[in-house]
């Protein structure tokens, strides 16, 4: 008889952005395609999911997408047999009836809390440790991370090879951009902007508009559009809109599926990203980038920002280190960043080389999906 596939349940609560579902959707697909697992992905907001996977039926209780069993997480939970491995993404609370089903299994499942990504030192000490217990079922901490002793980052098999081939193929890049209606002027630098609301944006747009180098700014639909509208003096910006001011062309893009967004990042010279999912994908793009971290109460997100910067800038010259760090700090404080941007531009070749080196360094670690599977293998 063929061996039964190990069954995994991933639970995702969509908070107020796309990072939660973005991460869990990538993870679920990779566990199926690369590790041959049977995965159910429980999601409480299929409308947010639809932005990443347009073929989703937002009314379906159960459906198959990319060989993942997608389930609507209902308000009224129905009796469901617990899986062999249970992942509560980002500390979401499992249904109490499901937790009882975990207890009722002859062999308790491996129960993990897949936590938020952080570069803070304490993560290494907590990764893989037991957390709370529910009756006979033990939960474990599982932390993605950038250093040895963590769970690593989401990275599909062959991703960097595909990226490298794409970046070396100018015709493939042109065709991709044309397919999205993007036609940058010859010699224009291409920048993507995906961010939360930011009062520092106007100064950056002023700097790009007044630059001697042309810039084509690609803005996927999202929360930053209001700030772009105010700077342009227009209302109702939507996908397809193109506005030119001096050396700056601003183009609004539709929200795209994840593989398209990856290629968009690969095409750009610089990427402004936000949250967790796009933050990781910008690093795999091997290009200089700017992170808008998700704001948390009492500014504890700034500790995470500093922890990442401390790791990321190692190996840079002191001037380049100060330039990129200053840009990131000002952007996340909502301050004017024009001067920081100009300073960063002075160190462009070094920052480009460093971005690729950082990418290759991170690729030496096991990817997150593989690390989860290995953790389960060690546990049993």
TrEMBL record:
<protein>
    <recommendedName>
        <fullName>Protein-arginine rhamnosyltransferase</fullName>
    </recommendedName>
</protein>
<dbReference type="InterPro" id="IPR016633">
    <property type="entry name" value="EarP"/>
</dbReference>
<comment type="function">
    <text>Protein-arginine rhamnosyltransferase that catalyzes the transfer of a single rhamnose to elongation factor P (EF-P) on 'Lys-32', a modification required for EF-P-dependent rescue of polyproline stalled ribosomes.</text>
</comment>
<dbReference type="Pfam" id="PF10093">
    <property type="entry name" value="EarP"/>
</dbReference>
<dbReference type="GO" id="GO:0003746">
    <property type="term" value="F:translation elongation factor activity"/>
</dbReference>
<keyword id="KW-0328">Glycosyltransferase</keyword>
<comment type="similarity">
    <text>Belongs to the glycosyltransferase 104 family.</text>
</comment>
<keyword id="KW-0251">Elongation factor</keyword>
<keyword id="KW-0648">Protein biosynthesis</keyword>
<keyword id="KW-0808">Transferase</keyword>
